[in-house]
Write a structure and sequence with these properties.
The complex is a heterodimer.
Chain A (H helix, E strand, L loop, with lengths): L3 E12 L2 E13 L4 E5 L6 H9 L6 E6 L2 E2 L7 E4 L11 H11 L4 H14 L15 H13 L5 E5 L7 H17 L3 E6 L2 H7 L2 E5 L6 E6 L1 H6 L8 H4 L3 H16 L8
Parallel strand pairs in A: 3-8, 3-9, 6-7, 7-8
Antiparallel strand pairs in A: 1-2, 1-4, 4-5, 9-10
Chain B lengths: L7 H24 L11 H13 L7 H32 L1 H14 L8 H8 L4 H24 L3 H9 L4 H30 L1 H5 L7 H10 L3 H33 L2
The chains are: A alpha/beta, B mainly alpha.
């Protein structure tokens, strides 16, 4: 039962002797094995939400808890996939994936079994001895995803994991993540600014307002996915043609557009 | 302003012209009759003397043996500098209190030139091995410490966060993340350290009793043999170039492996 719970979470930054509120009264519950995507305009604090669940940042008010335990520090039960991959460039693909397993003190045979499983699942066979810089961005992010999944964490935290990839690679990775999430259902908190990505991947979408970041609206995607059987549709572009997908996408876009400040052109 | 790139053969040509020009000026000065050839020998005289010193013992040992004992002292001083400087630099980057504790003393001491440690080292160690090792250490220590410290301070935060997220203990985060992330800076520091340590050699060997290139040069001075002194200089120069080339090789290998 892995649940991420944000209760009355505030985050105030101090800068140049001034306080400014980045997040205000965030209340959110990510249920067991639920895939929740947070979307919002840049600077709304969505990444801060993820980092607080990871323990890399701390709320100035309220609490973030996982399975009822208040998050205080980072740990392998809450695996993070970073936008900039953050693979260790001096370690091979295999050693990168193995790093967290060694922290957990898992025996060698079991390590080997798990690493081989996820390396195979992420299409990294034959690249075990390669160094990260020898791989494309998409391949590097596959390694980072394998490194997170292999820990068998309670929750997975993904901070715009496909934001640094080109459009085509991005689509492939989105399809692979859906496949992976179906095979290994996990509790996932996924940060993105890409609306279609959120609708395609998530069970629920949280739309945030611009600074100070608050929860603007929470949308249910799961019932639409089940009603229109998106999981049985192989290609992302065909899913995107489904009427409910189009409707949800338009709705999220409208919510985001309302958040744009006057003069904000993008 | 950007300098235009030179083609490799053009570059070699210019280097050759520079070297030949230098030797030509030196030779003509030596042969001009303005000074005696004992006072300023020609390059050829020095080379002959050099070959002679390689074959025949001078002040108790051949040039090769003198070099060997110099390299031994250098190895100890430089090795000690690396052994202390790398861990200390990493720890200072990690623990602010240690940084505050060490920095003032270090900043004051590092401006005392290695040669200025000679009288102190002589008083403390006499003619023992400790003196030269201390002096070489004083030359080699600051760059490796400073480079390790700065390199460790600049390690990309994402690697530290990844290590924390992956549950690494402090020890593993230090040895498997901080240290390897800092390696390029450390090696760059070691290259400078090796150069400065090797340069401190002659000063270090002013106070040794029986061997070493510096010792050979001091004896050459006593024997009023400029060619012997210059042979020592030649040997120091050549070995210095070789040490630097070896470390440069290490540096390039690491950078290539990282894809830098």
């Amino acid at each position: 039962m892995a649940i991420i719970r944000f209760e009355h979470v505030d985050r105030v930054f101090h800068q140049n002797g001034q306080d400014f509120t980045a997040l205000k009264d965030i209340n959110l519950e990510v249920k067991d094995r639920e895939f929740v995507a947070i979307v919002g305009p840049s600077g709304c604090g969505k990444t801060t939400c993820m980092r607080m669940a990871a323990g890399l940042e701390h709320p100035t008010g309220g609490t973030v808890s996982v399975d009822g335990v208040v998050v205080r520090a980072p740990g392998p039960d809450r695996a993070v996939v970073f936008q900039q991959f953050a693979l260790f460039p001096w370690k091979t693909v295999w050693d990168n994936v193995e790093f967290g397993l060694l922290s957990l003190g898992i025996a060698e045979a079991e390590r080997r079994r798990r690493i081989e499983h996820y390396i195979g699942l992420m299409g990294l066979h034959g690249y075990e001895r390669a160094y990260p810089h020898q791989l494309s961005g998409g391949m590097q992010q596959r390694v980072a995803i394998a490194r997170a999944y292999v820990l068998d964490p309670k929750v997975l935290l993904m901070d715009e994991p496909f934001g640094a990839l080109d459009a085509q690679t991005r689509v492939v990775m989105q399809e692979e993540l859906v496949r992976l999430a179906r095979q290994h259902p996990r509790t996932v908190l996924f940060i993105t600014h890409a609306v279609e990505e959120a609708v395609y991947l998530a069970d629920r979408i949280v739309v945030m307002s611009r600074r100070p970041g608050t929860l603007r609206e929470i949308l249910d995607v799961k019932s639409a996915r089940q009603a229109e059987r998106w999981d049985e549709i192989e290609r992302i572009e065909d899913v995107m043609d489904q009427p409910t997908f189009v409707h949800l996408r338009t709705h999220v876009w409208k919510l985001l557009r309302e958040q744009q400040a006057p003069g904000d052109t993008h | 302003m950007l300098q235009p790139r030179l083609a490799t053969n053009r570059w070699l040509q210019l280097s050759a012209i520079g070297a030949i020009g230098f030797l030509a000026v030196w030779t003509s000065a030596a042969l001009s009759g303005l000074t005696s050839r004992d006072f300023l020998p020609t390059p050829w005289d020095v080379l002959q003397r050099f070959m002679h010193l390689v074959r025949e013992p001078f002040s108790g040992a051949t040039l090769g043996m003198h070099l060997l004992s110099s390299l031994q002292r250098f190895g100890m001083g430089f090795g000690l500098a690396a052994l202390v400087g790398v861990p200390l630099g990493l720890l200072m980057a990690r623990f602010r209190w240690l940084d505050r504790l060490v920095t003032p003393a270090f900043e004051a001491v590092r401006f005392v030139a290695p040669i200025a440690w000679v009288p102190f080292a002589a008083l403390w160690f006499g003619t023992g091995i400790g003196g030269p090792v201390l002096i070489i250490f004083m030359g080699a220590f600051p760059p490796v410490l400073i480079n390790t410290y700065r390199g460790a301070r600049q390690v990309d935060l994402k690697y530290i966060e990844a290590a924390q997220m992956l549950g690494a203990s402090h020890w593993r985060a230090m040895t498997q993340v901080m240290l390897p992330a800092t390696v390029p800076s450390i090696v760059a520091g070691l290259r400078i350290s090796a150069g400065l340590g090797w340069q401190s050699l002659v000063g270090a060997e002013l106070i040794v009793a029986s061997s070493g290139v510096g010792y050979l040069m001091v004896k050459g001075q006593a024997a009023i043999s400029t060619a012997t002194v210059m042979s020592g200089m030649l040997a120091i120069g050549v070995v210095g170039v070789i040490i630097d080339a070896a470390l440069r090789r290490v540096q390039l290998t690491i950078e290539t492996r990282r894809g830098l």
